[in-house]
Amino acid sequence: MSAQLLDGKALSKRIRADLKTQFAALAESSGIAPTLAVLRVGDDASAAGYGRAIERTCAGVGVTFASHVLPADATQESVEAEIAQLNSDPGVHGIMILEPLPDQIDGHRLIDHLNPAKDVDGVHPLNAGRLSAQKAPYFVPATPAGAIRLLEEAGVEFKGKQAVIIGRSDIVGKPMALLLLHRHCTVTIAHSRTVDLPAVARSADILCLAIGRAEMVRGDWIKPGAVVVDFGTTYTDDGLKGDCVQAEAAEVAGMLTPVPGGTGPVTNAMLMSNLLDAYRTSIE
């Protein structure tokens, strides 16, 4: 068996083209430029790199990218004050907080201070709660939202399927579990303390990997014909690696999101989709 590879680059290109058209139409009719504010504290290289990637995505769809960089020794109070200013600015339609943050900054407190209507990353407790209850409106974190879009485009059937998510983070594992549950999957959330993790993984018709450990999942963890969604992005001496051994997974799975080129490219496109919703709500 050779798995069908789900092309995130091609899907991202289509989504961004559609978003560019919609942003342009709304900007012309309203006279208001769509704006995403991205807040970074300090000069962490990975946070800065992600910020540049978001800036490129914004430029590609006609969104103004507003960078807000505070020094590494900024206080909790000063960062919260910056968020308050962005919350109240009618010209800002979405806000993102880049991680990692310096040790003296409590990221959970920052998230609590976000205006949920501008929380395009879907991290505020109100958005998380509305997603859990399936009560719109809410923003879904962009990475799992992009994965669902990839699976839907590929014609994956969800109803009644066994889904296993390995990883329980608030921005990938948990929301992915909820999105699959809402589509009538039977969902198991597994993690590093799960007993006989390989056996649990082999039970999955849809196996989602959000572990953050390069090539942890081997081919014999995968049910033949399963759909494997690999969220892993670990940089190694041999390049970017996912959470599974891709060559082994491709021999067993029915469908596979490759790394790179799978869920990654769709993530920022879905972030822009969330921003479009926030922008439209703001100007209507």
What does this 3D model show about the protein?
This protein is globular. The protein has a 6-stranded parallel β-sheet, sandwiched between helices. A 3-stranded parallel β-sheet has the order 3-2-4, sandwiched between helices. Strands 9-10 form a two-stranded antiparallel ribbon. α7 (173-182) links the parallel β5 (162-166) and β6. The protein has helices at residues 8-30, 45-61, 76-88, 107-113, 125-133, 142-153, 173-182, 197-202, 246-252, 263-283; strands at residues 4-5, 35-41, 64-70, 94-97, 162-166, 186-190, 206-209, 227-230, 234-236, 239-241, 255-256. With 284 residues, it is α/β, with parallel strands linked by helices. The chain has 10 helices and 11 strands. The longest helix is centred in the N-terminal third of the chain and has 23 residues, at 8-30.
Which characteristics define this entry?
284 residues; alpha/beta; Rossmann fold; six-stranded parallel beta sheet; three-stranded parallel beta sheet
Could you say how many structural domains there are in total?
2
Order of helices and strands: EHEHEHEHHHEHEHEEEEHEH
Oligomer: single chain
In round numbers, the mean pLDDT is 97
The count of strands amounts to 11
| Residue share in β-strands | 15-25%
CATH class of the largest domain: Alpha Beta
Largest sheet: 6 strands, parallel
- The whole-angstrom Rg is 19 Å
The name of the CATH superfamily of the largest domain reads NAD(P)-binding Rossmann-like Domain
Number of helices: 10
